[in-house]
Write a structure and sequence with these properties.
β7, α10 and β8 form a beta-alpha-beta unit. The protein is about 45% helix and about 10% strand. The protein is globular. It is of the alpha/beta class and about 525 residues long. The longest helix is centred in the C-terminal third of the chain and has 22 residues. It contains 17 helices and 14 strands. It has an eight-stranded mixed beta sheet with strand order 4-3-2-5-1-6-7-8, with helices on both faces. It folds into three domains: about 100 residues, no CATH class; about 240 residues, Mur-like, catalytic domain (UDP-N-acetylmuramoyl-L-alanine:D-glutamate ligase, 3-Layer(aba) Sandwich), CATH 3.40.1190; about 160 residues, Mur ligase, C-terminal domain (Protein-Tyrosine Phosphatase, Chain A).
Length: about 525
Amino acid sequence: MENGGGLADWRRQGGRQRQNVRKEFAPEAPKKTRRGGKEAGVWRREAQQIRLRTIQYGRYRPRGLHQYQFRPERFSDDEDLVQTTTRHRIFGGMIELGLGRIASLLQQTPLSWQAIHIAGTNGKGSISACLSHLLAAGGVRCGRFTSPHLIDRWDCITIDERVVQESLFRHIEAQVKLRNKTLGIGASEFELLTATAFEIFNHERVEVGVVEVGMGGRLDATNILNNVLVSVIAKIGLDHQSLLGNTIEEITREKAGILKPGVPCVVDGTNAPEVISTLEQYINDLNLNAMFVHSDVSDIQSPLLRQIFEKLDLQPHQQANMCCAVSALQLAMSKLRPEVDVDTLIPHLDGVEWAGRLQNITLEPLVARKEPILLDGAHNSQSAEVLGAYVDRKLRSPQSNITWVIAASRGKDLTELFHSFIKPGDNVATTAFGPVDGMPWVKAVDPPELATCVQSILGIGKVKDFDGDLLAAINWACEQASGGPLVIAGSLYLVSDVLRLLREAQAGKESHVS
């Protein structure tokens, strides 16, 4: 290929080349390749050949790509970026990590706002919610971008604590998708969503965007940010190992990829020692100003924050998240509004809401049960342990077992996830969440597989499989609980489906009354 070719031409020719490679090496994938077997081994070898050929092709790209580099300190040159991205495109299914495509999408769109960038396995969303709430209270026009969305695809984007209007979201999304198609970029769904969020922030003239990493950090689309006020590293644990690494140190290195020279950072100091030591290496190498936050050290935080902890009866992980948010706010406001006393904003934390995280809600009018239930999106071992500790402390008693409604995404360690909070004597309804808008690669575990996992718990109570009928599962669970503790957990996508059902039931009731 001639180096003078345009980006779109290179994309199209690259696509044709990859198709030819796939046809040559892998005309048809064997159906059963999950566990061993000769066919699976052959297919893996052919996939490796495809990978090597595709990476080799990545060396012959137009020099024009060098004109746009957001993160030169992270890559020796653009070839490293292309190779890393290609590897994840092949072995990561539809989850495509890398900065090349998002850079192309935003090439002509300078970001007019500063960012607070948040990475971590758990706690990112809570920290984001606290930060945007406090910034808005401090008079800073603030946007927030989190993932995944809760009910509607656009509710992951807020402006001054209000979900962006659907009409504006669809208008800017259409522009981004047209650019993607015209330039032949081939961006992933998350990259399109990220570009849409960032351009909405431009359109709404926000001063600060609070941005949550989608997955990992180093190669996440959000890491295209180049005007960051503060970086935040929340609690890190094992999750998405197939993409981020099999050890906590490997995953930490991916998360630490958001750290930038000259940008101060806040770290959840309650992280495991191996996480802290890995982060310290990065922080020392970059010579960063870093705050390691511990919620149990009273002299670090304002007495007002301690009062909030007591008033809201927050769990240790919630306290740590709130401390991270306040510390990040202090760093940001010292640049944005140095005249503002951050302590005066802390009482506003009383009004922060973050749905689907230890959330107590009533299910009326969806079902007849009047007692509140607990809704939690725990979906990895770390968050499952937190949920289990909360349930044991707040809900479980010798006289009262727990009734559960559970679902999970494929690829999770089901035993590690559910055995940490489901105990002998508990009753369990297994179900599945529906298709996730904008995330077609996300699939639910088959309910019978979940049931088998739960039934292996010695002394378990009743276990019933409801396939994908979530409402039937909830009704059965309400009957079994009979007013006692009921918890819905295992996936944020399950939380979304519950809240969507509840919204539809409430809308139906209102229309019937009118």
